[in-house]
Amino acid sequence: MYIESLFERFKNGDMYAFDDLIVEYKNNLIFFITRFINSVPLAENIAKEAFVELYRNRNKFEDGSHIKAYLCAYARYRALSLKDTPAARANDNDPINANDLIELENMVLTSDEQKFIVDSMKGLDDTYKTVLHLVYIEEMPYVEVGRVLRVDKERVKDLVAKAKTALKNNIQ
User: Fold this and answer.
1) Residue ranges covered by each domain of the chain
2) Has domain 1-108 been given CATH number 1.10.1740.10?
3) CATH topology for 110-172?
4) How much is the pTM?
């Protein structure tokens, strides 16, 4: 309800509410983007773009219930389009970027279980990483995950089952 009321205030012209929405989602969105590209600065830029798009398209939403899915879908699309570019690989061996990633991870991941899941996801297919991240880190319902991945709820269920099996195999 908090997000919905913030979004309603934002749609009614309260720019402080938009600032609060950014604060609410920024770190998680940047962390999500870094699952695709290993660059905190580039992830920050993509997150800024996503918020600009949210601002531009705010009237497409009746309420704030789908904001997270919208931001994640936009960010995923942009990150995947930049994934194999020199800009995305520029920070691969940069110790400052590595420290930024650790700091971001510590801000976003609130439980040991989440940290274990993220550590165990290394080496998984990008789609599996995405679905696991959205379900277990962002705690999105399957319908919202489907919005991000542009698939139906049944396909999300199937992807989650396959991703959990791959995760289990990765752990063993």
Assistant:
1) 1-108, 110-172
2) yes
3) Arc Repressor Mutant, subunit A (1.10.10)
4) 0.86
Q: Are 1-108 and 110-172 equal in CATH topology?
A: no
Distance (Å, rounded) from C-alpha 130 to C-alpha 128? 5
Compute the Cα dihedral for 136, 137, 140, 142 and give only its sign.
negative
- The two three-digit tokens of residue 168, written as one number: 């289990």
List the chain residues with pLDDT less than 70.
87-97
Burial class (CB in 10 A: 0-12, 13-18, 19+), 150: exposed
- Greatest C-alpha distance within the chain: 52
Phi-psi label, residue 109: left if phi above 0, alpha if psi -120 to 50, beta otherwise: beta
> Which one, of 35, 123, 25, 138, lies nearest residue 79 by Cα?
35
Q: Are 72 and 134 in contact (CB under 8 A)?
A: yes
Query: Hey, CA dihedral for 157, 80, 134, 65, is it positive or negative?
Result: negative
What pLDDT does 63 receive?
A: 77
- 155 by DSSP, 3-state: which? helix
Length of the chain in residues, anyone? 172
Spatial CB neighbours of 169, under 8 Å, sequence gap ≥ 6: none
Q: Is 49 helix (H, G, I), strand (E, B) or coil?
A: helix
Query: Is residue 75 within 8 Å of 32, Cβ to Cβ?
Result: yes
